[in-house]
Design brief:
alpha/beta; TIM Barrel; Oligo-1,6-glucosidase, domain 2; 5 domains; 8-stranded parallel beta sheet; 5-stranded antiparallel beta sheet; 20 strands; binds 1-O-alpha-D-glucopyranosyl-D-fructose; binds calcium ion
Length: 529
């Protein structure tokens, strides 16, 4: 049986920023329910819902205080049940975010754990007498001293996100029980937050890819979703091709697929995302080609809530915004794997620069800024990095229409809107037959209708660096996809003849011999020799 996610497209919702229903300026579950018609029109098969669990919100919900309760700002468990049920009526499944590398320090397990060294929950977390060199992804040491018991606890992320100790079988069982609670509710999958870190060996300074990681995943698979038609996608920042093969090998019974981030470091100099460089698009091509040629199934994405908007980052968010957005969509959605769309990507939302740290909400950016100031860096340099790479870029509220606050809220939005919402919004896109939205809609339909996209082989086509071209081949059928990655014209030629035009962001091509591609032009066609 083919699993449901093989010819599906997943839409990621950042709940805080999607649609507010009660005027408190924060997106919520009722808001999402009110937009299901829109998502059905787009045609997506599933929603990946970023965390909506009870949380003090130090990292916008990735710090969970109760895995089995909904945070008040998002609604109630009844709202969530309703979302699952209503979404089903719109042919949309729900994939939940699973954050089990850490909890909030306000989770009852941690409240117990920090009480005394003898507490039964002590060992649910990682406590040591002395810190080592491990650092937090959000700046500074990964160890926090706790006065009550005079030891340090590990936090690979914020201080308010203590790391769970997966070596403890009791903890693991609690996590599996919790996962089964959600599975029994009728959800269709889990996106697993920094799952590569659960096998950490802090004393050896190993965070990702620890020696027991795959063992834990196999156990989890057995104890929870293993026998179900269920999507599991692991967030694995450091996965090499060899690692990815392990995670997704059906014989190993671990995950359906992983998010790998090799292309994500193209615009940075060294290990830090904040040290900027101009991305080399030839490298982008090489990375995509490597993963397409070597991994049986990829997850395909440009954006998520942690990374900047793709057109601002790798394309053009000015003159050629629409062409670039469609080009990136066509390039990605015709590859082999499961495509993910991050809310707002389908209307070409752009990065949203800020002028002062006071306008920055994200904990990662804020911590980096204040740590940078202490190290003597200038405000200008730090803001330049934040404007290029900061996580708020993708987290500004969804732009629905050109009325006040873009129709996102009637109150004061929790995070500023991008002022370009007057031009860039859902309403304008729906009214324009040539909008980015309809390119996405068409790509999703293609994914549903053509076995080529699921089963076809991928073959890179040699071109100049500014063009990415590939073939998909199934039986005696062949598709050619051609993308101009730049705003300059580019020449392309091929021996093939066009049999059928499939999709394009300019008028359809009729020949492939010695053509001059327009800025960010992209098209796909069925070809014959
Ligand atoms: O992200 C994991 C992660 O490694 C990121 O924090 C990454 O380092 C950073 O965002 C790059 O900009 C996941 C979630 O997607 C993220 O939102 C959470 O903050 C993080 O885990 C902790 O749960
Ligand atoms: Ca609200």
């Amino acid at each position: 049986m083919t699993p449901w996610w093989k010819n599906a497209v997943v839409y990621q919702i950042y709940p805080k920023s999607f649609q507010d229903s009660n005027g408190d300026g924060i997106g919520d579950l009722k808001g999402i329910i009110s937009r299901l018609d829109y998502l059905e029109k787009l045609g997506v098969d599933a929603i990946w819902l970023c965390p909506i669990y009870k949380s003090p919100g130090a990292d916008n919900g990735y710090d969970i205080a109760d895995y089995e309760a909904i945070d008040e700002q998002f609604g109630t468990m009844a709202d969530l049940d309703k979302l699952i049920q209503k979404a089903r009526q719109h042919h949309i499944r729900i994939v939940m975010d699973l954050v089990v590398n850490h909890t909030s320090d306000e989770h009852k397990w941690f409240i117990e754990s920090r009480k005394s060294r003898e507490n039964p929950y002590r060992d649910f977390y990682v406590w040591r007498d002395k810190p080592n060199k491990l650092t937090s992804a959000f700046s500074g040491s990964a160890w926090q001293y706790d006065e009550a018991t005079k030891q340090y606890y590990l936090h690979l992320f914020a201080k308010k996100q203590p790391d769970l100790n997966w070596k403890n079988p009791k903890l693991r069982q609690k996590i599996y029980d919790m996962m089964n609670f959600w599975i029994d509710k009728g959800i269709a999958g889990f996106r697993m937050d920094v799952i590569e870190c659960i096998g950490k060996e802090p004393d050896q300074e190993i965070t990702a890819n620890g020696p027991h990681l795959h063992e834990y995943l196999q156990e989890m698979n057995r104890e929870t979703f293993g026998k179900k038609d269920f999507l599991t996608v692991g967030e694995t920042w450091s996965a090499s091709l060899a690692d990815a093969k392990k995670y997704i090998d059906p014989k190993r019974h671990e995950l359906s697929m992983v998010f790998q981030f090799e292309a994500n470091s193209l615009d940075q100099v060294g290990a830090s995302k904040w040290d900027l460089k101009k991305p080399d698009l030839a490298e982008l091509k090489a990375i995509l080609t490597k993963w397409q040629e070597n991994l049986a199934w990829n997850s395909l994405f440009w954006e998520n809530h942690d990374i900047p908007r793709v057109i601002s980052r790798f394309g053009d968010d000015g003159k050629y915004r629409v062409e670039a957005a469609k080009m990136f969509a066509i390039m990605l959605h015709l590859l082999k794997g499961t495509p993910y769309i991050f809310n707002g990507e389908e209307i070409g939302m752009t990065n949203c620069p800020v002028e002062s740290i006071d306008d920055v909400n994200d904990i990662e950016s804020r911590n980096m800024y204040f740590a940078g100031l202490e190290k003597g860096k200038s405000k200008e340099e730090l803001l330049r990095s934040i404007n290029a790479k900061g996580r708020d870029n993708a987290r500004t509220p969804m732009q629905w229409d050109d009325t006040a606050n873009a129709g996102f809220t009637t109150g004061k939005p929790w995070l500023h809107l991008n002022p370009n919402y007057r031009e860039i919004n859902v309403k304008a896109c729906l009214a324009d037959k040539n909008s980015i939205f309809y390119t996405y809609q068409q790509l999703i339909k293609m994914r549903h209708n053509y076995p080529m996209l699921v089963d076809g082989d991928f073959k890179a086509v040699a071109t100049s660096d500014n063009i990415f071209a590939y073939e998909r081949v199934l039986g005696d059928e062949k598709w050619l996809v051609v993308c101009n990655l730049t705003k300059e014209e580019a020449t392309f030629t091929s021996e093939y003849k066009i049999q059928n035009a499939l999709i394009s962001n300019y008028p359809a091509r009729t020949t492939l011999q010695d053509i001059t591609l327009k800025p960010f032009e992209a098209f796909a066609c069925q070809v014959t020799c």
